[in-house]
């Protein structure tokens, strides 16, 4: 709040000035607010706080409350009565457990894949590429963010289709693409969220001074040893920041799973199929990714990587 | 501060015979695109000497250092270290280590881990590593900061850690890239003395890059003066200062009066440029008798600048040549006033044609 300086002590006294007197309504409001810093802060934050408090947290709270309600199995009507049934079902039914674990596994695989691709690309962009090449690649990386989500998922659906481009491409090697399923889902999600990993890793790479790499080589390290002992430790905060996005976005996705996931069920698809049939159960299952992300954030915080954010 | 008086010595590299130069550059050239940073350079650096590469920025001295370290590969020519051809060897294959201009300490490692870094890569046993790290920190008199991070150290301390990190590997040659550039003047002078003492102690060849002529003269056994990608002169500090080979060397090392035209003709009998150091000239009253074996001109004092230990006179001779005279304060001085006519006198042997 350094911008909101307290007014000088003399503000209340009549201002002697050679400037012409200004008394429009705007001037009066400005003058009124100038001597009342708390009013100014309130004015500044009123709308964002309403947004955050009522719409944002509020809707999450509603979800949480719904999770404790019940659905009449005959009429499919939601009965607002407190019950732990939904949570018991999620935690004990093997199908739900398997879906939750599979989703977490997919999210981790997407994160690892993004990180593994971001490291060499970031190294090349930050330390090797010419400024022109760097600009081209920066556009290339962020390109997926510019296209509509559904369009991108659809294009991957075409890619992975039976006899589609990927099969055609692999045919000369006597192989076929994985078809719709978990592998296709991981690849598609990694494509969708890659910018969120690549951008922080690249910008962190740029901040590592070149001479640290020189120093490492000078002290006897080969390239991989330098990457392992200098680059990766210094990029850790960027990897963690990026992983928060790749992990939580993968955890919540369901459209990609519907289009390229084949029979693979994830938390999102289960919620989607229950939204009309059994909203309280869907709400309860919806809490699972939230809890997982909170735990993930907590672990990330413990590494100290979030201090830079 | 006698840095190394009580500290343990690192063993001297004795296997190199004195006859093989520590470093030999043969017709080494380096171009970056159209720009020739280094042009056909020949240079031999002797084992155990403190050798400086001196020159203004952009003169190629740092490029030469980086080629010796292996960070840049030469476009042409050959580089030998202790008689071995290393022209295209990677940095980790060369028995040289570098102290970087801004230290290049690893920010995520403690001081001890920084110093241990190279030893670990050489897969030395833990006990040996611990011992050598302790010795190295002892040598630079900073054993107490071993567990701190570089960000918690002062510039001078970081500089010394960088030195310890390189020396702990006992290289044949230590390369120093303007290591004192970021320090303030006092610390810089103190570190100069320490560096010299450490070099004498460990007996390793030091190659020191600097643009500070005073620093080069103070520290070095020999100096190479770089000018636009070439070496103008190699020699001891006194060689360079008193017998500069080129106009560039004369003017880059300290202040000098470069005399040309009719006055040069009068002084030496040839029209060649004469370099005359300001401190070699004395200001004497016109009526005093001229000493033997001296040259003299009459001049008018145009400006007097008092600098503490010395006084500088800007004088204009009857030929119209401007000369700068530097006199030690406290020495017998003519006490010339501004505007007065005086005789400027100096031993004839200081007329040095370049």
Q: Give helix and strand order of chain A, one letter per element, not per position.
A: HHEEHHHHHHHHHHH
Instruction: Tell me the number of strands of chain A.
Output: 2
Number of helices of chain A: 13
Tell me the major beta sheet of chain B. 6 strands, mixed
Q: How many distinct helices of chain B? A: 9
In terms of quaternary structure, the protein is heterodimer
Protein structure class of chain B: alpha+beta
Radius of gyration of chain B: 24 Å
Stretches of chain B where pLDDT is under 50 for at least 5 consecutive residues are 1-17
Sheet bearing the most strands of chain A, described?
2 strands, antiparallel
Please provide a written account of the structure:
- The complex is a heterodimer of chains A (309) and B (354).
- Chain A is mostly helical.
- Chain A is built from 13 helices and 2 strands.
- A two-stranded antiparallel sheet of chain A has the order 1-2.
- In chain A, helix 4 crosses helix 10 and helix 9 crosses helix 10.
- The model of chain A has no long low-confidence stretch (mean pLDDT 87).
- Chain B is α+β, with helices and mostly antiparallel strands.
- Chain B has 9 helices and 18 strands.
- A 6-stranded mixed sheet of chain B has the order 6-7-8-3-9-10, sandwiched between helices. Chain B has a 5-stranded antiparallel sheet with strand order 13-17-14-15-16, with no helix packed on it.
- In chain B, helix 2 crosses helix 3, helix 2 runs parallel beside helix 4 and helix 3 crosses helix 4.
- The longest helix of chain B is centred in the middle third of the chain and has 18 residues.
- Chain B starts with 22 loop residues before the first strand and ends with a strand.
- The N terminus of chain B is likely disordered.
- The chains are: A mainly alpha (309), B alpha+beta (354).
- At the A-B interface, helix 9 and helix 10 of A face strand 6 and helix 2 of B.
